[in-house]
Each structure stands twice: as C-alpha cells, then as structure tokens.
C-alpha cells in the first residue's frame, strides 16, 4: 500500500512539474512573440514616416527643378518612396477599409510621378496645371506626415499598443468597437479625399479607377461558398477557423471579409477578402514572421507566377520588384497578344524563407480585367529601341 501511494505521488508530482514547465514555456514563447510583433510594427511605422518625409521633401523640390536630369532623379525618388510607404502601411494591423484612401493617395502620387518621370526622360517639361497639382499633393503629403508623427508619438508614449490592437481584433469586432488606429486613419482619409483628381496615363489614374468593376458581371456567391474558396487557397488541412472580421463589405468591389486562424499558431492570422461576385481573392495578408531569406528574386518571381496560375490569374508577367525584410514585393500585369495591359495588375508579397504567398492585392485587376481589342502596332520593335536610345 505504501509503495502504491508513493508511486502515485511521484506520478502526480511529475505531471505537475511537466504542466507547470509547459505553461511557463508557452507564456515565455507568447511574450517573445508579442515583443517581436510590437517591435516589427514599430519599425514599419518608423520607416513609413521616413518614406513620407522623403516623399514630401522631393515634392517640394519640383517647382525649383531646372534640369531634365534633376527632374528624373526627383520623380524617381517620389515613385520609390510612395511605393515603399504604401506597402509598409498595408503590413500594419489596420483594416484596409480604413487605409484605402491613404493607400490610394500614395499609389496615385507614385504613379503620377512615374508618368512625369517618363515624360521628363523624353525631354517634355511640366505645364502649369501639373505644377499646381504637385503643389497640392505636397500639401496633402505634409498633412499625412504630421498625422503619422502624431501616431508615432502616441505609440512611443504607450498610449497605443500594436500587439493589443492585433491580438484583440476579433474581440473588438464582437463588441462592435473600432480599432483606435482605424479611427485615426478614417479621419485622415476624410482629409485626403479632397486632394486633386489625377487623370493621366497610368493604371491608378482616376478615369481608370472610376470605371465599374468588371468582376461585378460575374455571379454572386454565398458566404459559405466564400469560406470554401478561402480553404482552397490556404489549404483545408491548415485552417483552424474562419471568422468575419468586419461588418464592412468593401468599396468598389463588395467582399466577404475573413480573419483566418491557422493551425499551429493561434497568434498569427491571415486576413482574406473574397469578392461576393465570382469568389475571387481581392486582398490577403498573412502576419506570420519571415525569419530568413533562402530564395532569390528570380525564384520568388517564378513561385508568384505559378501561384497566380493556380488561383486563376493566367498570362501574367512581373513588371516591378522590391526586396525588404526577407520579403519580395512583386507587381504582375496581364499580357494579351504580347501586349502588357498595365491596368490589370496584381501585387504579391512572397516570403523568401519558403516561398509562401503572404500578401495579395488584386483589386485593380478585378476592376479592369477584360479581353480587349488590341490595335495593330504603329512602330516596329527596332524603331522602339532606337527611340529609347535617343531618350
């Protein structure tokens, strides 16, 4: 009897020690993840502020730019900084509904500058209307800069905690409360809605963005069908749960917005928006940590093209690449009859540790994509090369 009691006591003690140790290890692991997550978001915000500061500084230089060479350098810098700010902004734990106007502003400033960059390269100067537009954009960039500094200050003073915002997102939604940073960006959006209408030769031009989305011509699907699409995309065996994360259904393209918890990591979630018409991916963001870089850009581009084919986006080629923080950011555009159709654009973020697709933006493609009647070329490839040499 004594031996039996001693044995049971030892077993119970081992179980208690094991569960306590396991609990402590889980707590430490969760704490380390929260610290990493907070530091990563803080780093992203710091870089966004730096990008917008540089963008504003470059915009302010445009009116006093005298030479073609200076103009090319300045417009290149504006384009680069706007793109970097837009991408990093989308990595923060803020709903993309709240960010939509801010990211649209950055996309249009960058795209407009790229259009002016190409014109400067061909020896064309700016007209008075374009100069006034750039001055207005500089004013709004200054406003965005001030608001981002205020947000950075609040985070530094401990008034806002990125990890709380990220990890309590579903709780806030269930209680019909808004993420405090969402509120700030919605207020920023109201101000940015007043910047000048930009109509120019580019995929983010207002005359392109204001067309009725082509995807709306497709049949409407149910929310359960949309959930099945999510499982097909992410892997049915990898998905733990799918929850609705917002009561908003999207802007130009009505969507079903989901927050997906993956098996094996309850803290890292994937936000996915599926179009109510056609069941297409409009937006995806995976928050998992990318710890290293094993793939080069060529390998990432190939993985991205195979992925796009797998989910139904065919005949796409890469048009722009950027590498940062072990992630490849790649823009793909549709090709029809050997002609690149730039409005039909999809942006992918690819993790360079294993090639996972951790970000998708397909709204521009879904708005613009249709089969077009491509006119015959007016110049030959050889003539185009000669023109480039002259530039």
Describe the structure.
- The protein has 391 residues and is of the alpha+beta class.
- Helix content is 53%, strand content 17%.
- The chain has helices spanning 2-61, 68-89, 96-121, 128-156, 162-167, 169-174, 180-192, 206-209, 223-234, 297-310, 363-368, 381-390; strands at 239-244, 255-262, 265-275, 281-286, 316-324, 327-336, 339-351, 357-361.
- It has an eight-stranded antiparallel β-sheet with strand order 1-2-3-4-8-7-6-5.
- Strand 5 (316-324) and strand 6 form a beta hairpin.
- Helix 3 packs across helix 7 and helix 4 runs antiparallel to helix 7 (180-192).
Q: Which class do the helix and strand fractions yield?
A: alpha+beta
Sequence of secondary-structure elements: HHHHHHHHHEEEEHEEEEHH
Tell me the span between the first and last alpha carbons: 97 Å
Proportion in β-strands: 15-25%
- Give a quick account of the main beta sheet: strands, pairing sense, barrel closure: 8 strands, antiparallel
Instruction: Work out the number of β strands.
Output: 8
H/I helix tally:
12
- State the helical fraction: 40-55%
Report strand order across the widest sheet: 1-2-3-4-8-7-6-5
**How confident is the prediction overall: mean pLDDT?**
80
Radius of gyration: 24 Å
Shape: globular
Give the low-pLDDT segments.
Answer: 170-177
């Amino acid at each position: 009897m004594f031996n039996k009691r001693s044995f049971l006591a030892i077993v119970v003690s081992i179980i208690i020690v094991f569960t306590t140790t396991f609990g402590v290890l889980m707590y430490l692991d969760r704490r380390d993840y929260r610290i990493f997550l907070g530091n990563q978001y803080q780093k992203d915000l710091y870089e966004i502020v730096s990008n917008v500061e540089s963008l504003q500084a470059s915009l302010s230089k445009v009116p006093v730019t005298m030479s073609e060479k200076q103009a090319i350098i300045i417009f290149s810098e504006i384009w680069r900084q706007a793109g970097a700010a837009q991408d990093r902004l989308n990595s923060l734990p803020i709903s993309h509904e709240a960010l939509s106007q801010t990211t649209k502003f950055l996309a249009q400033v960058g795209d407009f500058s790229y259009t002016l960059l190409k014109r400067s390269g061909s020896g064309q100067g700016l007209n008075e209307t374009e100069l006034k537009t750039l001055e207005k954009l500089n004013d709004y960039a200054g406003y965005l800069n001030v608001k981002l500094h205020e947000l950075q200050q609040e985070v530094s003073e401990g008034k806002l905690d990125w990890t709380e915002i990220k990890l309590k997102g579903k709780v806030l939604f269930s209680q019909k409360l808004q993420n405090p940073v969402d509120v700030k960006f919605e207020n920023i959006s109201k101000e940015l809605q007043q910047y000048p209408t930009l109509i120019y030769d580019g995929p983010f031009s207002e005359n392109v963005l204001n067309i009725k989305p082509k995807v709306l011509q497709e049949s409407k699907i149910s929310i359960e069908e949309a959930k099945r699409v999510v499982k097909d995309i992410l892997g049915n065996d990898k998905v733990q749960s799918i929850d609705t994360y917002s009561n908003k259904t999207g802007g130009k393209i009505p969507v079903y917005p989901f927050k997906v918890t993956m098996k094996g990591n309850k803290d890292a979630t994937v936000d996915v928006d599926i179009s109510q018409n056609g069941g297409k991916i409009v937006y995806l963001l995976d928050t998992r940590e990318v710890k290293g870089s094993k793939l080069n850009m060529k390998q990432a581009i190939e993985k991205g093209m195979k992925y796009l084919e797998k989910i139904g986006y065919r005949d796409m080629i890469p048009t722009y690449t950027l590498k940062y923080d072990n992630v490849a950011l790649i823009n793909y555009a549709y090709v029809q009859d050997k002609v690149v159709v730039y409005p039909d654009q999809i942006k992918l973020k690819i993790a360079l540790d294993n090639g996972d697709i951790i970000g998708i933006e397909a709204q521009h493609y879904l708005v613009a994509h249709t089969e077009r009647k491509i006119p015959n070329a007016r110049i030959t490839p050889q003539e185009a090369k000669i023109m480039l040499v002259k530039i």
